[in-house]
Amino acid sequence: MDRLPDQLVWEILSRIKKTADRNSVSLSCKRIYYLDNEQRQYLCVGCGLDPANEALTSLCNRFPNLIKMEITYSGWMSKLGKQLDDQGLLILSNYCPFLTDLTLSYCAFITDVGLRHLSSCSKLSALKLNFTPRITGCGILSLAVGCKNLSILHLIRCLNVSSVEWLEYLGKLETLEDLSIKNCRAIGEGDLIKLGHSWRKLKRLQFEVDANYRYMKVYDRLAVDRWAKQWVPCDNLVELNLVNCIISPGRGLACVIGKCKNLQKIHLDMCVGVRDCDIIGLAQKSRNLRSISLRVPSDYPLLLLNNPLKLTDESLKALAQNCSMLESVRISYPDGEFPSFSSFTLDGILILIQKCPVKELAFDQVYSFNDVGMQALCSAQYLETLELVRCQEISDEGLQLVAQFPRLRILHLSKCLGVTDDGLKPLVGSYKLEKLAVEDCPQISERGVQGTARSASLRQDLSWMY
Fold it and tell me: What's 428's domain CATH number?
């Protein structure tokens, strides 16, 4: 090893992906130890730091070129020693001049003061906060003022972030490309308009509302009416992920759906108020769409918006006609839905499958999909992955057709009551599938999955039935 040039040793170290292996190799000789110290760019620390600030100082001295740092205290208990505090973030700002990506998870002792320390990290471009209960909007604003290159911001369960001046400031900077706000109870869809011109740069948006908090406390019909009607310039958005959001015509996030000409991936999970015209507008504008995931809510919340409409086959037909690159389709319904409440019929689903090059198809509690639908999949030339969850209209007759699917490689069955070992018999010995995963299907046994795929697994937990 002593004769190898430094560049070759660095190349060898860069190919060692597991941190434990990297640590072991670095202890093999002094030369590799010091070269590893220079090259190491990512570090994940947390409960093992004790005493926290002193240990972090030692690590930062040893690895002077850190670019990415993750500090996580998941599972922390007081007996593990004191957590990293604001002084720890001051250490980071002083000892890590190249820091660009920082994640703080379950850091209960970090406050706005700590974020102000980080504001001196001029290269910081990505900040992810996951359950940091003492952080407020003031701290995020102070960091945004100092870190002019912030392009990625993730806030997850930051319950005390109530003010949104930081959104306005980031809107003026026009640097934000990836924004994720999940279960931050004081931030609503209507607040996103404060991003202003930053919408032009935004490429990814994830917005998730705490559904229990919403329905119990704040977001009623009057709150929706107060949202401003707006025009949102979101031409560069490529990924949109909305969970438990209210979609009101001409307001809030309804201004985003249907205006994203470069959108490639959309996920709408229990979004109340989504109508056919929203999906039709999306399909007509976003012709590069590659992935769509819809979890359709029940009719009850729609009554809160005085909107009895729900998604129908017209939405699926519009996707089929306009989105010629659509590769992934996921449709699901929540617990408690009944077959008569399903928005999409088999005809609409088949039109989508037949006209788009769908490689990945997933249905969860879609009662309209049955053995006839399975027969149609025999002509699906691109289908590689099929996931069926709680699809009770599928029987052994339909399951046996899987052997005729031209390119299917992965099959996942979960909580399907109508299928038995007999449905898998045509697959036994053929090894057509690369992977078969069966979960909680009471009539399929360990013997039934043996020999059906190169990798076959069975898990049985039938508690969901009782």
Answer: 3.80.10.10
Residue pLDDT, tens place only, 418-450: 999 999 999 999 889 999 999 999 999 999 999
276 HSE (CA, 13 A, CB side): 14
Query: What local confidence, expressed as pLDDT, does residue 296 receive?
Result: 86
Please report whether residue 277 resides in a domain: no
pLDDT reading at 302 higher than 50: no
* CA 207 remoteness from chain centre: 10
The number of distinct structural domains making up the chain is 1
Q: Which residues pair with 240 in a beta bridge?
A: 205, 266
CA distance 352 to 331: 12
Asked if residue 432 belongs to a domain, the reply is yes
Partnered with residue 266 across adjacent β-strands are: 240, 292
CA torsion angle for 166, 168, 171, 176 (degrees, to 10)? Answer: 20
* Tokens linked to 339: 């077959």
Q: Residue 14: its pLDDT value, please?
A: 72
Residue ranges making up the domain that contains 446: 381-466
Q: How far is CA 299 from the centre of its chain?
A: 26
Q: Which two tokens stand for residue 178?
A: 């990836």
CA within 13 Å, CB half, 299: 10
Q: Global pTM?
A: 0.87
Using DSSP, state whether 208 is helix, strand or coil: strand
Q: Where are the alpha helices (DSSP H) in 74-160?
A: 86-95, 112-118, 137-146
pLDDT digits (tens, 9 = 90+) for 119-130: 999 899 999 999
Beta-ladder partners of 455:
435
C-alpha distances in Å from residue 129, one per residue of 237, 301, 420: 22, 31, 46
Entry field: residues in the chain? 466
Question: In whole angstroms, what separates CA 427 from the centre of its chain?
Answer: 33
Residue 401 domain-assigned?
yes
Lookup: tokens for 369 = 């999909």
Q: Is 461 a domain residue?
A: yes
Q: Yes or no: say if 137 and 111 are a contact pair by the CB < 8 Å rule.
A: no
Residue type, 217: K
Report d(CA 45, CA 148) in Å as an integer. Answer: 26
Q: Give the residue from 391, 395, 388 showing the smallest Cα distance to 413.
A: 388
Within 333-426, where are the H helices? 346-355, 371-376, 396-399, 421-424
The 10s digit of each residue's pLDDT in 224-261 is: 555 556 667 788 999 999 998 888 777 667 778 878 89
Q: Give phi and psi for 19, each to the nearest 5.
A: -60, -40
Residue 200 has which token pair? 């032009």
Give CA separation, 181 vs 160, 271, 358, 389, in Å: 13, 15, 30, 28
